[in-house]
Amino acid sequence: MTPLSRRAFATAATASLLVGCGGPGSPRAAASRSTGTPPPSSSPASANAVHALGRSAPVRLRIPAVGVDTPVIRLGLEPDGTVQVPPVTAHDRAGWYRHSPTPGQVGPSVILGHVTVGAYGDGVFRHLARLRRGDRIVTRLENGTAAEFTVGAVRTVAKSRFPADEVYGDVDRPELRLITCGGPRTGDGYLDNVIVFATLSSANP
């Protein structure tokens, strides 16, 4: 993780993924407890390690197994220190937290998306929980590279037990985290978060 992303992760709390939906945990605790030892990974090991990529922001995200093909916008921090989320619009898009590594860099790159977008209906990550181990995720980067990830695990966790260390903590290889809301709905929100853990498996120009 770069020094910039380390500082941002240490001070930011992730905001909601839709109106009334509590956010997917805070990176603050994970950063403050980090010892430099990567947490156990739930992603499958590759027989041939893929070299990490240089920093290049994601501009598009494709997840063939669940029909996702979306532009990716950049998300920063709100004045109160929380992470921005994609705007609630009819044309919903995923958003990359720009203080995390870019997809393909060493560390956990974090992309957020809505499961629902209010009166507009379903969000871009509405079927995220249907992903399975071995499914492909392709991120197209600004420099033209297509960084492909392989899903290692999909977890639905209670917001009160969000695994911040596993999501935001240091890892020693390029990984990807996709996060949305899920589980039972209560009022205007959801009780759980859906988290996809994936590892870089190939990179092509």
Account of the protein in words:
With 205 residues, this protein is mostly beta strands. It has a single domain (3-204), classed as Sortase (Sortase, Chain: A, Beta Barrel), CATH 2.40.260.10. It is 10% helix and 37% strand. The chain has three helices and ten strands. It has helices spanning 3-11, 27-33, 164-168; strands at residues 13-14, 58-63, 68-75, 82-83, 94-97, 107-112, 136-141, 146-158, 174-186, 189-204. The strands form two sheets. Strands 2-3-5-6-9-10-8-7 form an eight-stranded mixed β-barrel. The radius of gyration is 15 Å and the shape is globular.
Arithmetic mean pLDDT? 80
Strand content: 35-45%
The rounded distance between the terminal residues' Cα atoms is 24 Å
* Shape category: globular
Give the class from helix and strand content and strand pairing. mainly beta
CATH class: Mainly Beta
CATH architecture: Beta Barrel
Detail the topology: elements first, then pairings:
Blueprint lengths: L2 H9 L1 E2 L12 H7 L24 E6 L4 E8 L6 E2 L10 E4 L9 E6 L23 E6 L4 E13 L5 H5 L5 E13 L2 E16 L1
Parallel strand pairs: 1-4, 3-5, 6-9
Antiparallel strand pairs: 2-3, 2-7, 5-6, 7-8, 8-10, 9-10
Short structural summary:
This protein has 205 residues and is mainly β.
Features:
205 residues, mainly beta, eight-stranded mixed β-barrel, disordered N terminus
